[in-house]
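Quick start: what a row looks like.
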Amino acid sequence: MEDGIKYNECDIDKKQEDGQYSDLPATLLILIALVQGLLLLLLHQAIELDFWPKQSPHWLFCFYSMAFSAPLLYLLTLKCQQDFWQVSRWIVPLSLLLAVLGFYIGYQATPVEHIRYDSLLFSFILTSVLALFKILLYVQHFTSGESFTYQQLFIRSWRNFLTLSLSLTFAGATFAVLMLWAALFKAIQIDFFYEVFTEAWFYYPVIAIAHGFGIIMFRKLSHIIDVIKRIQQTLMKFLLVLIVFVAIIFLVGLLISGLTPLWDSGGSSLILWMQALTLFFVNAVYQNHASDRPYTLWLHRFIYIGVALLPIYSLISFYGLSLRIEQYGLSLARCWGLLVWFLLACFSVGYLWGIIKLKDHWLAQLSRVNVVMGLVLLAFMLLINSPLLDFRKLVVASQMQRLEQGLVKPEDFDVRYFRNELARPGYIALQSLKTSFPDQTTLVAKINRLYHPEKSDSAILYQDFVNSIKIVGDGNNNTGQMTTLPQALTKSIFAQLNQSEWRMLNNLGYYILPVDADQDGHLDYLFIEHNKHSQLISLYFYDQQTWQQVSTQYFYLKGDESIVWLEKIKQGQIDLIRPRWPHIKVGNAEYQLK
């Protein structure tokens, strides 16, 4: 027995009398690593060569989930070949579960031509890695036949983390050596090796085998892994004291400064980070039996006083998150903030209860809380990737409700956030807005512009632009009907606007005032752009058989000044002030008196 773990006859970590370790089924594990590399290569080629399932992200996510999860679980769980079928009873259904969740997340990226799923992919990878890490611990435990204890889970978690980190480093180093070798041969004009080593069909299997070999090697060296673990524990002992000291001083500082400066600087996330770091270091230091104390008694009590204060951080961060949600509704960041807050609050309250009940012996409660919360964390990581707790749907429902209740104006509605961050739920919501608010021509134009960015001559985009123009000024057609505007004029304005996507997406209103600017008896047109962050006035006049344009510089009006300015525009209160003094021309040079 080592570090409280018992080993059976197949365990790779069991020491023999001569100090060696029992042999892993190396051939089988290398074969599994090779199969993983070939599967990843096939998916890579599907993306590169544009064949199925590239255009079917639900299947693509599903297959990637399987290709990563199942081989990795086998590589880190198998102890001898006789264990293969016993281990498969756990790995196969759990890998299929991750694949099903991948299918659902991939479906949220459809229709693929309209969905940007960078953030979708990032959150799926993050939650899947955390879920896979927790699943690995439980698979290793249940296939070992040992009693369920926190100490065993903790030791395995660090061994798995360090084994994976070191094996990935080894795989990366292998890839770097191959690229160096390729570059050297290319430098002496022997291109064969360069072309071979930089081909996906070569480096995918090679890197996968290197990764598998690294796992085999570092699993056999578990005693070295345990030494590294003890070294980091020693280092974190000193850092934990510093972090607890800072956390206590910070609370005292809050009593002096109040919460307002904290909210002005993104306080909720800072509070959560402080709380998370404290909990992480507590668990990194107190990782052995409940009776073990790495500190003297007075330092031990200083630490648990700091831990007992952590629920105060939970109250502060919840208050800040609640204010933001009340003001602006849910967003993906706030949903994640609520989840992180809930998990950290559960840890903190659980530890506090142990301190109140057990005082100096509160570490026994720490173990119980961590075992339960490990299962809770796993459940949330799986639920987030399912229809049961899809943050994107929650955000869409919250923001649509705010729009319907008038808490946000249609022209201020953030359509780009729906397009870039909310995947399929955002796409469906934006399409429904076009029918729910057909009279909001500016909003409809923004939505169509999002999904037709490359079609500069699109009839849909042009018609949206024409419909969104409002004619202002007494004596002119103030009904908004476009029959009074020359089509060549509107097409010329549209062509100018459509050269820059941001101008149309930031638009809050287009206004046109017919004027005779140069008093030549022909109408010219003042075109006013009211954008989210700026304003611009352009004069369009007909000259040399085409519509010409001169513009002011962008100017920036905010708050009440912007409201008054816009109201005067809508009423057509625009005056043309001609210069008192004429321009002076000498040859081809023209000068303006100011």
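That is the whole record. Residues 1-9, 11-22, 475-483 have pLDDT under 50 and may be disordered. Residues 348 and 576 are 67 Å apart (CA to CA).
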